[in-house]
Structure formats: C-alpha cells, structure tokens
Amino acid sequence: MAFEKEKEHYEDKIDFFTNVAHEIKTPLTLIKGPMENIMDEVPESSPITKNLQLMSRNADRLMHLANQILDFRKIEMNGFHLNFDRINISELLNDIYLRFKPIAAHNILSYEISCESDIFAQADEEALNKIFNNLIDNAVKYAQSFVTITLTLSEDQDHYKITFANDGFVIPEEDREKIFDSFYRIKDTSGQSGTGIGLALSRTLAEMHNGKLYIDPMQNDKNVFVLLLPLMPKN
C-alpha cells in the first residue's frame, strides 16, 4: 500500500513537471527570437550587450531545464532513442566548457580544462550534450573556488574518461549513490535551484551508451564525478 502511494506521488510529480515544461517552452521561444534579433542589431561595444547576453544565457538555461524534464519523461515511457554517429568528444566537451566560462568568471572560480585532442567515439551527440551540460553546470553551481574538467583515453584505448571536479560542499558517502535518484536533493544544498533529475537523466543516458557515471569514492576532500564511456558502444 505504501509502495503504491509512493509510486502515485512520483507519477504526480513527473506529470506536474512535464506539464510545466510544456507550458514554459512556448513563451521562452517567443522571448528568445526577438531577443536574438536585438542582439544582432546592437553593437558589441554597447553597454547593454552584457545584459542581453546574460538574459540569453538564462533563457537558454530555462529551455535546457524544460527539455531535460521532457527527455526524462520520454525515457520513463521508453520513447527516447539514441542515434549514434562519429563524434569528436574533445571538441564537443571543449565547446560546452566555453559556454560556462562567463558563469565561472562571474562566480570568481578557477575554471580549467585538460583535454586530449581529437578523441573520436560513436555516440549520440545530443545525449552527450545533455550529460556534459548537466555535469559542468553542477560543478560550476556548487563550486567554492575551482572547477577542473579532464578528458583522457583509457590505457586499453577502448574507453574515454571525463572527470568533473569541484571543491564545493563535499557530498557525504551515504548520499553518493542517492543523488542519482530522481528528485533526490541533499539537505545542505537544497537552497540551490534545480529540478533534481539532471543527474538521474545523465546516468541513464551514460548507461544507454554502455557507460558509467559515478562519484569517485577515493576522493574525500572534493567532489569528482567520473564519466566512463566506450569508444564503440554496443547498439
């Protein structure tokens, strides 16, 4: 009986978030279009350019959150499918890293990337976009003074590993698996904005690539998320 009630509560929560996501996507699209037109007309040296860029980044973030909820619902309904192509992982990761550079600078963070050049893998580019965005966003959002991202190729050259490290509130050992559950929020960080599904979605997408996403258990003075993915996933 308790399980049924919990399941019903979970479904209600998913339905609510999905409906909200659908509702906000249309006005967001209508905001983004005219704003981009204004940005094209305003000279880069204009004093309002920074404000427009800030508005654009926040609109993009809201759109990302809305899409994330809808993607999560698709996965729940077995309606999310991957399309594998040959992707330059180094280039994709670096592009997403650069998107967060202004936010890291605003938060006065040391923000660095170490990236082996031209690592290619078979992957779904949109899914990797979502995983990288979520993990970098989390690292920047919760960091105190630094974020480091490292991409390496495994010794057997069958996998690539990306680590996302930050020195924010260190996730307690008992929560290191729970944070990958849908809607789970650590009490000490519950004041931060978020849907509580980003890590759950990222782990599911990693597993759909025959990979893994976990917190490095050997690190106790910082948070290090490890993404381990094969170069050639088994479809």
List the topology elements:
Blueprint: H1 2-41, H2 49-76, E1 85-88, H3 89-99, H4 101-106, E2 110-115, E3 120-123, H5 125-142, E4 146-153, E5 159-166, H6 198-208, E6 212-215, E7 223-230
Helix pairs in contact: 1-2, 3-5, 5-6
Describe this structure in words.
This protein has 235 residues and is of the alpha+beta class. The chain folds into 2 domains: 2-76; 85-230, 2-Layer Sandwich (Heat Shock Protein 90), CATH 3.30.565.10. The chain is built from 6 helices and 7 strands, in the order ααβααββαββαββ. The chain has helices at residues 2-41, 49-76, 89-99, 101-106, 125-142, 198-208, and strands at residues 85-88, 110-115, 120-123, 146-153, 159-166, 212-215, 223-230. Helix 3 (89-99) crosses helix 5 (125-142) and helix 5 (125-142) runs antiparallel to helix 6 (198-208). It is globular and about 50 Å long. The mean pLDDT is 84. Its EC number is 2.7.13.3.
Features:
235 residues; alpha+beta; Heat Shock Protein 90; 2 domains; two-stranded antiparallel sheet; 7 strands; 49% helix; kinase activity; Sig_transdc_His_kin-like_C; EC 2.7.13.3; kinase
- What's the CATH H-level homologous superfamily of the largest domain? Histidine kinase-like ATPase, C-terminal domain
Would you count the extended β strands for me? Answer: 7
**Largest sheet features:** 5 strands, mixed
CATH topology of the largest domain: Heat Shock Protein 90
What letter string, H or E per element, gives the SSE order? HHEHHEEHEEHEE
Number of domains: 2
Report Rg. 19 Å
GO molecular function: kinase activity
Protein name: histidine kinase
Catalytic activity: ATP + protein L-histidine = ADP + protein N-phospho-L-histidine
Keywords: Kinase, Phosphoprotein, Transferase
